[in-house]
Amino acid sequence: MKQSKMFIPTLRDVPADAEIKSHQLLLRAGYMRQNAAGIYSYLPLAKRVLQKVEQIIREEMDAIGGAELLMPTLQPAELWYETKRWFNFGPELMRIKDRHARDFALGPTHEEVVTSLVRDEINSYKKLPLILYQIQTKFRDEARPRFGLLRGREFIMKDAYSFHTTKESLDEVYQDMVTAYSNIFRRCGLNYRAVIADSGAMGGKDTHEFMVLSDVGEDTIAFSDSSDFAANIEMAPVVVNYEKPEEELAPLEKVETIDQKTIAEVSQFLNVPKEKCLKSLLFKVDDEKYVLVVVRGDHEVNDVKVKNLLEAKKVELATPEETSELFKAEIGSIGPIGIRNDIEIIADVAVQYVVNGVCGANETNFHYIGVNPERDFQVSQYADLRFIQEGDPSPDGQGTIRFAKGIEVGHVFKLGTFYSESMKATYLDENGKTQPMIMGCYGIGVSRTVAAIVEQHHDEHGIIWPASVTPFDVHLIPINIKTDAQKILADQIYERLTNESLSVLYDDRMERPGVKFADADLLGFPIRITVGKKAEEGIVEIKLRKSGETFEVPVNDLVIKVKEILKAY
Predict the structure, then answer these.
(1) What proportion of the chain, given as a percentage, has pLDDT over 90?
(2) Which ranges carry the Aminoacyl-transfer RNA synthetases class-II family profile domain (predicted)?
């Protein structure tokens, strides 16, 4: 492809609103342009990268028996009513009405649509298992689109769905998917980890996220320093063995703590360690009831664990106004002693080992000291309700926990029968009995993967594409296109490489060499071939983008050399 014919609008300056490297470089190098917050046009170079990533995905999905289809983006609300996700998914679901005032959703995912397709067409165990997948644009109304392609309102996704007659069959395909995803991200040149995760609004229980390690990741990964254990911090179980101090129980006493609202302030004011303080947070569960969650002062409540323990669809912190109305006190002064009977108290496991602790007295500017669980307040159930911390024992018993940041690029779920039972997707088993299909779903953020690749593969000069996803294998640059010897040789090289099925961007522009070289580094293809002063001798210079290494090569050896480099790149 001649560069003069391509649409590559590069920028010299970093866009002011681009916070991270992938966003900055993809804009500067002319790979994309923003149309609105969280909405981008993919320009020709980005389109070529996307096609490479999609091809890798297709190859790995086809290898495990996936069949590609394409479902509509516009989804009738009636399907979402069947699973009640129209009401539970949240404000991220983009909803529109047609001219007849009928409700539709712009699909963020396709569980309802694919389940409706399969229930209408599959009725026998003989036709299962079945794996269907698509690559398609999705929509989510993000409250705060940011970081370019990492958090957008419109994005490209690969979503797959499997249907089974047994849990064993689902387990087998789930593991196949984990293997396929590992192959996909490895082939894309990514350093990633598969971590235990929460299913969120998708339903189901067993699930893993694929995280690309990066300092700009919005997710925290808890991993063992001595094993392959890894989990999203929301899901990492805590297995600390607590010990109860041997202290004589002190009497319960109310003390004044004027303007001491945080754990740190109360701890310092009363001269007690944070681990002796009890932190009480009021949660609203499924918009129906209130639950008071109590953890130790040096720990943080994990709302995902709270939601899972209560088997709730949604939990959220009560507002300051709700808290004040129910407890007659400000948030910093609430506690579990003497509260209303209709408010359930649940507590983290560590709380039951607190002796002579401190908690809010449900009166603004007052706290209790000498607090002892069970004597002074009753807990309906103790459970692991806190976030794991660095230095905690690894849940698998090997090593201790460390933290890293990660970008989620893939997610696999065992859905079970949530959707099939809601939507009556059934089949007849060997005995002619009706059974609900068992389901799994599996997603990859295709456009997000492209951004993650750039986050891990760049330097101060620009992008460094892995050979597997690069827009072009070679950037061919004649120093002076007006020099006959250089132009003739460049034309010959372009034709020869192209005929060998190598992709080449031929910089035929009337630009200074410095501009061409700077653009080549910015665009980031693996190999730069420079045709210069030795053109008449049939010698060109090769520069490797990743290492910066340069060397001269006779034109007759060029094809073999380029193929060798790309194979080892």
Answers:
(1) 93
(2) 48-466
